Amino acid sequence: MSDYNAPRSTGKKSGRQKSAAQKVLTANQGHKARKRFGQNFLHDGNIINKIVRAINPKEGQNLVEIGPGMGAITEPVLEATGALNVVEIDRDLIPRLRTQFFNYPNFKVYEGDALQYDFTQLVDTEAENPAPLRIIGNLPYNISTPLIFHLLSYTEQHLVQDMHFMLQKEVVDRLAAGPGTSDYGRLGIMAQYWCRVEPLFIVGPGAFNPPPKVDSAIVRLVPHDVLPFPTKDITILQNVVRQAFSMRRKTLRNTLKTMITVENIESLDIDASLRPERLSLEEYVKIADFVADNPLLPVSK
Questions:
Q1: Lowest mean pLDDT among 20-29, 39-48, 200-209
Q2: How many CB atoms lie within 10 A of CB 53?
Q3: What is the mean pLDDT of the chain?
Q4: 15-223 and 234-293 agree in CATH topology
Q5: Is the pLDDT of residue 275 over 90?
Q6: How crowded is residue 90: how many other Cβ atoms within 10 Å of its Cβ?
Q7: Nearest to 283 by CA among 244, 235, 226
Q8: CATH number of the domain at 15-223, please?
Q9: Residue 4 burial (CB < 10 Å; 0-12/13-18/19+)?
Q10: Where are the alpha helices (DSSP H) in 38-104?
């Protein structure tokens, strides 16, 4: 059961958990977190164990970790599965990771920016039943939103089983937000179009080194087996949602006027005087499908 609204972790550990966390830190002494990569290394043994239990990795699964850092999550996942692919951008960490996990022949490190990485190469698409990706990661705050949009594209290709991320709590709130709330917007709508969003628990700054200035949270994204509100054209839906929230304080009649008329919005039983955060995912799909069938021709001058 989720304890997302329970009191956050204080960073206190039992003796055994402290030893596990200390093992991670000792193995990687000398590396300074780099601000340009948004690095905050997890060291709280209790939180590490809690995250791994939430992921529940099993042997034979196709797991990939984004930004393994000091290997805090990498080690217990490898112990459970014996195999793991990781994508790491920091060149200084890569030899450390390879040395730390040299006794795992199925541990593979790919150097590069996850924002540019082609995750399809980690799926054996020629196999009769290719193992889908289980993506995990402590995502850097500075790229978390574009990275999530990048990863959602792989759910469209039915290549993802689930995703577990450590994110800034504010981002998790936006992912899970519903209509009528201040956190509701483009990120949550598109994430919920493709996935079931499950906020799991909050992680306080003390669980990291260096500690961030904000709370973090763990979230699970599980692609829908059947899309609840499939659209005729996903690109048009993305454009409609992006345009609607480009000026979120204005009403639909103003934000969408280049895509659909007020009369046509009203014909869909949607009030054109509403602000964009008042519409549900289903209503955005209605608008997008109408636009797909009835593109608004530009007015000649």
A1: 20-29
A2: 10
A3: 87
A4: no
A5: yes
A6: 18
A7: 244
A8: 3.40.50.150
A9: middle
A10: 45-55, 74-81, 93-100
Please, how many CA atoms are within 13 Å of residue 166, restricted to the half-sphere of its CB?
31
Task: Write out the two tokens for 175.
Answer: 């992912």
CB-based burial label for 110 (10 Å; 0-12, 13-18, 19+): middle
Q: Rounded CA gap, 230 and 151, in Å?
A: 19
Rounded to an integer, the average pLDDT of 50-67 is 96
Quote the pLDDT of residue 296.
Answer: 80
What residue type is 31 in one-letter code? H
Q: What is the DSSP pairing of strand 216-223 with strand 195-203?
A: antiparallel
Domain ranges of the chain: 15-223, 234-293
Using CB atoms within 10 A of its CB, is residue 59 exposed (0-12), middle (13-18) or buried (19+)? exposed
If you classify domain 234-293 with CATH, what class do you get? mainly alpha
What are the helix and strand counts (H, E) for the chain?
Answer: 11, 9
Residue 92 burial by CB count (10 A; 0-12/13-18/19+): exposed, middle or buried? exposed
* Residue 99, C-beta contacts closer than 8 angstroms, at least 6 positions apart: none
Do residues 101 and 73 make contact, with C-beta atoms less than 8 angstroms apart?
no
